Amino acid sequence: MNLKNFVSSIGYDSILAGYDILGSIAHTKMLAKCNIISHDDSKKIVKGLGSILKDFKHGKIKFTGEDIHTAIEKELKKRIGKIAGKMHTARSRNDQVVLIERLYLKDEINTIIKKIDNVNTIIKKFASKNMSVIMPGFTHLQNAQPVLLSHWFLAYAWMFKRDKERLVNCYKSTDVMPLGTAAFAGTEFPIDRKYVAKHLGFSSISENSVDTVSDRDFIIEFLFTAALLSLHLSRFAEEIIIWSSQQFGFIQLSEKFTTGSSIMPQKKNPDFAELIKGKTGRLYGNLLSLMTAMKGLPLSYNRDMQEDKEPLFDSVETIKTIVDVSAQMVSTMKVNSEKMLSACKNGFILATDVADYLVSKGIPFRTAHFIVSKAVNHCIRHEKSFEDLSVSDWKKFSDKFDDSVYAALDLKKAIEKRKSYGGTSFNSVKHQLKKL
User: What is the pLDDT of residue 45?
Assistant: First the structure.
């Protein structure tokens, strides 16, 4: 076994090379500004780092060694000589690594926020297009009450909106400049941390050097936020799987998002939606792995923290992918509105509306609930629907029933009556679309 490979992180932290170089450029300029190194030395270092960054972006350089920080410094030494070592004055790998993680995560959070905005734009367009489609709403996966398809889908838009808000807060937690705290106790050199923060686009600087190098809260917060976003996407995916099944047939997925069976030629499996659910488990695991690594660490820096990068990188790439796939699935799927409307005729979906009808006649709701449940059981025994009952049939359950009961059995009227704030009425959905 090669022991160097065991401690090496170069295999996965090369993704941070660009951020490490930008951090070193800002730090080097600050050293010259504060007369800690000469301006001539600073210019040579910055120029050398710029050439490495250019080669890295064009794929002309491959870093090797223990970690990305050391690899870049060695490459710089090859290009400009021993002067390269001066750029490490007044800093440590401890504050250097947390700097580049914060720079990286800030960019990725912004990217993910844009992707969430995109999926919500697609959901809003879907809701607007299917504004009048009525479907059975479910509790316990049983037909419960009628609801607008647009209202049901906007429930996910509100989830994703909360996810975006959590990411915005996560960005604020990440947007703290750590460089200059050195190993953990600060430095004796007269550095200007505010200059570096401004140069790198941070809104604030960290307050306690010990906390700074040992803090991974911002990564854990992101991993949690990504895991919760994936939870919402997983629920969304499961709904799509159920609705696209032959038993439901509410929607039809584009062939781009289904795959065939190896032996059953008729199958169109919702594999993309299923993989969204599967990958959600990885995001949970990434959160748990870092929390486990951090849970018993004494202050300040410990090498255990090197294990923060792989779960971070994996969660970033995974969440970006499943948000994109979800957006594309919605934008290409077709709705079977007739099947949805037909499904509303099952399960006595307007039973609550009949109970509310009795309440409007002065009967307490609990009593109305009991009366309607007797009517439901009667219909089940005699294989009838509410619409099949005559007025005289209704009166057997309560003398409060008359011809007006049939108005309570109108699906569109049932939808429109739910005008309470946040309800499923047409105006409510229009209000939600505006607010979103």
Answer: 98
The CATH number that applies at residue 25 is 1.10.275.10
**Mean predicted lDDT score pLDDT of the chain:** 95
Confidence at residue 321, expressed as pLDDT on a 0 to 100 scale: 98
Same domain for 177 and 56: no
CB 111 within 8 A of CB 413: no
Residue 383, domain CATH: 1.10.40.30
Write out the residue range of the structural domain in which residue 73 sits: 7-89
Which of these, 411, 340, 432, 350, lies nearest to 151 by C-alpha position? Answer: 432
In 3D space, the residue among 177, 176, 272, 174 whose CA is nearest the CA of residue 226 turns out to be: 174
CB of 133 within 8 A of CB of 213?
no
The half-sphere exposure of 20 on its side-chain side, counting CA atoms within 13 A, is: 24
* Structure-derived torsion over alpha carbons of residues 380, 385, 388, 394, reported in degrees to the nearest 10: 70
Q: Are residues 18 and 122 in the same domain?
A: no
Q: What is the pLDDT of residue 259?
A: 84
* Residues catalogued as catalytic: 140, 261
